[in-house]
Predict the 3D structure of the following.
Amino acid sequence: MKNIKAFRQIAMGALLAGSLFGTGCSSDYMDTVPTEDVSSITISESLENLYLALNGIHRKMVSQDLGSQGMGGEPGLVICREASGDDLTWDTQSWHQALLNWSINTNPTSTYNSGPWEQYYKFILNANNILDMLATGHADSEDPLAAHIKGECLVIRAWSHFQLVQYYANPYRNGQDNSQPGVPYRVEPKTEAMARNTVEEVYAKINTDLDEALTLLKDYEPADINHYSLASTYGIKARVLLTQQKYAEAATAAVEAINLAKADGCEIMKQADLMNGFANLTSKTKEAMYAAITQNDQTVYFYSFYAYMSWNFNSSSVRTGIKCISQSTYDLMSPTDLRRQWWDPTGKAEVPATSYNQRPYQNRKFTARSTADAVGDYTFMRISEMYLIAAEAFARSNQEPKAKEYLGALVAERDPEYKDQGNTGAKLIEEIMTHRRIELWGEGFRWFDLKRLNLPLKRTGSNFDATFCGFLEKQPGEEGWIFEIPKKETDFNDLMEKNY
């Protein structure tokens, strides 16, 4: 019998022995054992060593492992997703242009196409390695650290599969048949061929992993914001349920995430803090629920998020291609919305050097700490996103007073003259989605939002250069919304079919 639609995992080299360390962490273990000599046996000897390996996965979230410096971990993939949507544009600079014009979505040999597949399966493989070591070497441990490590690894595994199924499969549709091919859901540290699970199965397994993680992390206080907490795990759960159109459940999860985050001291960014540039979000605000903290002495070279998405770092990708918001999206803001400061509608504001490209609606939201070094924190989850999820989910589940409560709490810190617009039904949902587009611009959500809601992509009537970006409209169902499975995977599948 042929093993059809079976795929291996091209993250073959992402083994724990040496690939997860070298993160600059200060500890005796890190100082005395050369990273290239660390074996999986050594890692599994103690829970502390396994925690270091877990920390390594988190640090890998913001490092360059792929063949393009424009894909530096998850922040690099965020840029790719933003370029694929209809709220961000630029011209004259070719970095990420293939995402802007969708020329790679159906090109299975492109690094940009295979990058998400490889990146997320690396995270999955490493998480599964740690889970396997926990099960074989520390199964009877009553140390709370064992439960905490397991909980975080389950979150990493669930989140990574969630990202993959959004890229490489048709979207989940609540109440419909979701037996379309999804992605292989890997729960063991193996790389041999595995059949694709259906989309329904993938989401069921994601939720199973998250539910177990929520139990394991119940009393967990992470050492820093660079680890998953109970609050951020509820945040992932809220994202998943929102994507599944399970709105009442998504609202519940988002509210739980908000309440837990607030109990930990998290709060919506204040009006006075909006121009901190996001590179200092973890130190200047209390917005972040899960983030990668980068110190000023940690050089991140040219794969940093801020080497492409800032307006002030001295790189060619910024000098000649400062990222801009869609004019039509900018115009959705009220005249008193303080987030207007996040962009320069005139394109004439002072820039670091005269050689910098200047265009209307240039980004000012993301500012590198230095023009000479693209350092900066990267926030994977903000409490503001949870307020927007709660508002949208309540509105779509016919709980409009609650929707307005959570929307109003956020927008009050964005627009000092905001008042309830009196919107209901579709108009209220439209208002919420507008604030979601503005608030989360450049943070990797828009393209996925269009897919989950089965909406067209529209760049018309705005500042997109059709010649540079390739097209101005894409209707749902057109080619390119679903990434092709990488050719390395399909070639392996063909070989498997011939041998059976």
